């Protein structure tokens, strides 16, 4: 009976918990599995959050700052036309060029920047003396008008005033009572003859051209092509428009050989003669 009880005790199965405890006791400590630990770096997460916050603030504030800057610029005097200066003119007053632009201190510089060519063309159309014009913007609101002029060839006396003649042959509508003495005054020429005479004058040596004070369509001696040139040095030239361009070069050599003022006749030949009494009185 004792043997039977012992056998019954040995064959009695263990419960699952008892089996687990038995296995744990038999397994060495270093072989037992450990639970994985969660490694969390808290400072790194805070840095990422801070960067994301800064990025969001920049995306919100940058457009607002740009809008404030734009509104501030247009509200300031820097957004409008300030100083306007002119370069390149010698006979046309600076203010006259500025007036031709029709700019005012209420005009926006942004509009001027987009319409620079149109403003330059406006100057050229308003002032025939201006050959070229261009606008340059310096700084925020400074405008420089760079110009070049057509050469003045002389004056013509019309309607009780002296009108400037450009090298292009155009006679300016505006007149003056005090012409510049370095330019000759044309008289007696028709509208068709004046451009032809200007073309002839441009062929003269520069030194002789500067010495002419008057050019008159004298038409004397039954010659419709006869002209008379009054010189600043006291001499008078009689010539023909058909040959004057070739013969004018002899004038300095002729006057260098005489000591008395008189007439240099280049109409037929090339010689000097003293003033007649009538010519002398008219010159006086």
Question: How many separate helices?
Answer: 11
Radius of gyration: 50 Å
Helix content: 25-40%
User: Within the largest sheet, what's the order of strands?
Assistant: 6-5-4-7-8-9-10-11-12
Structural class: alpha/beta
Distance between the termini: 179 Å
| Main β-sheet description | 9 strands, mixed
Give the H and E element order: HHHEHHHEEEEEEHHEEEHHEEH
Give the integer mean of the pLDDT values.
84
What form results from the Cα inertia axes?
A: rod-shaped
Unreliable segments of 5+ consecutive residues: none
> What is the percentage of strand-forming residues?
15-25%
Strand element count: 12
Topology, element by element:
Blueprint: H1 2-11, H2 16-26, H3 42-75, E1 84-87, H4 94-101, H5 109-114, H6 116-126, E2 130-138, E3 142-149, E4 152-158, E5 161-166, E6 171-176, E7 185-187, H7 193-201, H8 206-210, E8 212-216, E9 226-231, E10 236-240, H9 244-247, H10 251-255, E11 262-265, E12 271-274, H11 277-283
Parallel strand pairs: 1-3, 4-7, 7-8, 10-11
Antiparallel strand pairs: 2-3, 4-5, 5-6, 8-9, 9-10, 11-12
Helix pairs in contact: 4-6
